[in-house]
Amino acid sequence: MKKEYLMPMLMAACVIIGILIGTFCANHFGGDRLQIINSGSSRLTNLLHVIDDQYVDAVDIDSLVDKAIPQILGELDPHSMYIPASEAKSAEEDLRGSFSGIGIEFNIREDTIRVQNVISNGPSERAGLLAGDKIVTVDGKKFVGKEITNDKAMKTLKGPLDSKVKIGVLRYGSDKIKEFTITRGNVVQHSVTSAFMINDTTGFIKIRNFGENTYPEFLSALAMLSTKNTENLVIDLRDNTGGLLQAVALMANEFLEKDQLIVYTQGRKAKREDIRADGRGAYKKIPLVVLINEISASASEIFAGAIQDNDRGIIIGRRSYGKGLVQQQLSFTDGSLLRLTVSRYYTPSGRCIQKPYVPGQGLKYEEDLMNRYQNGEIYSADSIHNNGKAFKTRIGRVVYDGGGITPDIFVPEDTTFMTSYYKEAAMSGLIMQFAYKYTDSHRDELGKYKDMESLSAYLDKLSLVNDFVTYAEGKGLKRRNLMIEKSRKLFKRFIHSRIIYNMLNEEALMKYLCKDDNVIKETLNVFKNGEAWPKKQTK
User: Fold this and answer.
1) What angle do CA 253, 257, 259 make, to 5 degrees?
2) For the chain, which terminal residue's Cβ has fewer other Cβ atoms within 10 angstroms, N or C?
3) Which of these, 87, 117, 119, lies nearest to 187 by C-alpha position?
4) Residue among 361, 325, 314 nearest 534 (CA)
5) Which pairing describes strands 232-236 and 202-207: parallel, antiparallel, or unpaired?
6) How far apart are CA 513 and CA 507, in angstroms?
7) How confident is the model at residue 122 (pLDDT cuts 50, 70, 90)?
8) Helices 61-73 and 43-54 sit at what angle, rounded to 10 degrees?
9) Alpha carbons 421 and 236: distance in angstroms, whole number
10) Strands 98-101 and 185-188
11) What pTM does this model have?
12) Other C-beta atoms within 10 Å of 170: how many?
């Protein structure tokens, strides 16, 4: 009798327990959250909600997102990027060409900030800082040591417009800290870093990047050169990594005839957009040469491609980087930025010069420049392989897509005097260190020379290469007499150029380097022989 009652009770108990277990599992493992995560494009958002709600440890979701987004974008292409809010301001300043700071150029040597140059008429110059000063305190606190990185120094010295900062410096010849109170001001970062005459008839303009100030600075440089009776023009875009499309389009417009195509962009969701010259450019008839190298990218390639495809001038140097993707910038509410590739740009002949890439293999993409060195392309035009599709310029010259702008005239990197000793000295930073130390301890004497020519002539009288070898030996670089003699010309050029830059400015540096630059020599030959206007190719 008892068994007859017991069995139904046990069955009822099992059903109740089953329901309870099922409810528990449903609530914890099978509920709406996971169903949502497993459906549609909201999976990532809901995944973050689940992690925030249920993960075993507390998680900084913002930090997790900052780390995850670049990984996602890396699966698209090498140039889509995410910029966290903490870095967005600096990224915007690079394009805007100005920031609020104290107005110095500096480097960090031996854990100490050393003032390289003081920007003319900037906050630091007005306060009394000098090139060569060592910054050792900021707002009364010690600011030296291994923790002082370039990034930390930039963030500390920059600040809100009209804010004040107290800088303590050690000046050469004194062991007493001298303090300056500096009111931060608007500091302009010039895109056009040099504009001068190479010879009696040839003007030279060096452009670092393309930002909001590039075009007005470029016009100012052209106007200055025009007063010097410039008959030929060189635009140096070597090492220029690009910038704003609008800036480079305005610049190209100065050289092209009305309705000539500068560039066009097109993407999956972005319809074709043509940018054409309006015919109002003031320099459509001047013989023109554009210099590029393997670092020249993006906007630099747009300019070089527009000049080459319209047969407007001659491109000299080495094959450019190969960036033909266009990014649109989007802002998030937290201040972070997304630069998403939305289209490709095409040169007037119709070629896209983006070099090949495999989504998700960003490291392999970045190794391309190293591969060019290893394959010999930097040293020989025969090593350039144009595997892309052939296109024709306005007058029928053949050009190729799929990997940068190939110059009309190739000039290899000169390795005539290169040795392993020189490479080690240069790559270790010892030459830069020596040049700075020499400058710092001889400022009074060097300061007597106010231009590149007189300072260079003075340096030629010294034996700085021998002084460097002794200095480097003291730093652990073993003396190699035969290699030193073979590379003596390179050592002299490097040391002298850095001292000239330390004492004068970037324009003086470029004037000095142009004196024995093989690319410049080739350029001057082009002008001399009347070959700056391309001619139709003949078989």
Assistant:
1) 85
2) C
3) 119
4) 314
5) parallel
6) 10
7) confident
8) 150
9) 30
10) antiparallel
11) 0.85
12) 19
